[in-house]
């Protein structure tokens, strides 16, 4: 699903992380933790080809990202749902149009009831016709998650998807990701929230990857 082979990254000021090799299997569930600035967002960007590593190889969904043509990269990205830390929307489209966009732009069918169910699940039923600039930070995060999961992606990469949410809504969104994982989607969530990780571990076989000392390691069972 995701294979990193001796991956290092450096933005120009010295290595952020070095010689990371790991394999995340199909249908797996991982959290990505570590101090602020350790490289969690960078890692996620490497996994969907927004960044190329300074050294090493990243393969996603069976293909080496560094060898892909633009068309192959676009095709691969259609199978990856991404929740960015700074959620961007098309501000002239409504929330429901934004959430449905990954389906409509790829010619896939979108039923009104699926969209209504999903918006209801993330607590945005009443904001379906709103424009994104009128949403709060937490509402934007929820819309961003809905947009990422609507295609039932093979892989979901989520960068602090619950950062602006209260605990009840965080649990609700986590359960949405757990359900998606049960249907086969591999999930990687970058988070600082240890309570979220503990909560998840009660529902799913989640592993924790931790950045420490310029390395990325599987954390022990202590969490
Ligand atoms: N485009 C860039 N150019 C130069 N430096 C960058 C760039 N993007 C990120 N960095 C730096 O790389 C380091 C890692 O950033 P990254 O966003 O991956 O960390 P993070 O672990 O996700 O942090 P946080 O938990 O605060 O979101 C930071 O020091 C950041 O300033």
UniProtKB/TrEMBL annotation:
GO biological process, one term: cell division
Record bears the keyword 4Fe-4S: no
Residue ranges constituting the ABC transporter domain according to the UniProt record: 2-223
Annotated GO CC locations: plasma membrane
Molecular function as annotated in GO: ATP binding; ATP hydrolysis activity; transmembrane transporter activity
InterPro entries xrefs: AAA+_ATPase, ABC_transporter-like_ATP-bd, ABC_transporter-like_CS, ABC_transpr_LolD-like, P-loop_NTPase
UniProtKB keywords: ATP-binding, Cell cycle, Cell division, Nucleotide-binding
Superkingdom field: Bacteria
Pfam families for this protein: ABC_tran
Gene3D superfamilies linked to this entry: P-loop containing nucleotide triphosphate hydrolases
Name the record gives this protein: Cell division protein FtsE
Source organism (scientific name): Roseinatronobacter bogoriensis subsp. barguzinensis
